Amino acid sequence: TIPLVLDVDTGVDDACALLLAALHPGLDLRAVTCVGGNAPLADVVRNTLTVLETAGRADVPVGVGVARPLLEEPVDARHVHGSDGMADLGMPAPTLAPDPRSAVDLLREVADAAAAEGDPVTLVPLAPMTNVAIFARLHPASFARLGRIVFMGGGADVSNATAAAEFNVFHDPEATAIVLDACATLGVPVTMYGLDVFYDPKVTDADVTALRAVDTPVARLAADLISFHHRRFANDGATIGDAGAVASLLLPQALETRSLPVRVELTGSWTRGRTIVDRRDWSGDMEHDPHGLAPAQVDVTLACDGPALAGLWL
Ligand code: BDR
Ligand code: CA
């Protein structure tokens, strides 16, 4: 089984990802950390606890993290995820409470413990990377003990929050830049599961009907979440979104990745938050990159087998 930690801004599709991480026998969910993003932090924490409670995973500690990006005011996405951040399902308030440890302390403890056991943890940020950046800066030795990072964010060719940028990176570009730099300097392998593949793993109407027929609390929640997404991603099905990044851990052969230099645009007036993926051919005479700092080398997901990944979620 794969030991992992999710960092979330739950979030309809973060909820889908939490269900998979909490319940798949191939995954060992050690902790969940919350950050402001799709919804304000208090909503994110409540939604996350609701999902874990529904999944029967009261044992998973939930760490409360940072409410706002490093530099800017938060701009949430409740217009996408519902006024409560999770599809306005009217579910009862969770009885579970968050862990007394902060998100950053939890990340440090889980990273250290897993490394000491000889099976380093995979960190899966599915949200703006504010918590992860602060973790990297505050506890670099523990950050270096991560097995790898697989983050949902960015894109080589596709954007959503603006014409140039993906939501998670746009929400906190400095945090993403810090995390990529920390991965490069501290030697943590990093995979970008970005918008080039995000919309490909899809659930159809027939899948939702089958889910509803299962008629357990988890299946009902899964069906309700994905049905809410259907309103936006109609036609040939609804994306499982962030859950695809979790599914990819179980089925790496479903991804086509290339190791490429990636930078985060921090200053462009229309391009702030864009991930600049360098696909130039460096074998020729392009000896010099005129930009100072070396870019991070990232395993960029350029294509995926959507049905295979969606099949893991169902
Ligand atoms: C990302 O933004 C959020 O709205 C989703 O939860 C996902 O993590 C997609 O750009
Ligand atoms: Ca998310």
TrEMBL record:
Coiled-coil regions listed in the entry: none
Boundaries of every Inosine/uridine-preferring nucleoside hydrolase domain copy: 4-292
GO biological process terms held by the UniProt record: purine nucleoside catabolic process
GO MF annotation list: purine nucleosidase activity
SUPFAM superfamilies in alphabetical order: Nucleoside hydrolase
One Pfam family of this chain: IU_nuc_hydro
GO cellular component, one term: cytosol
Gene3D superfamilies attached to this UniProt entry: Ribonucleoside hydrolase-like
Protein name per its UniProtKB record: Pyrimidine-specific ribonucleoside hydrolase
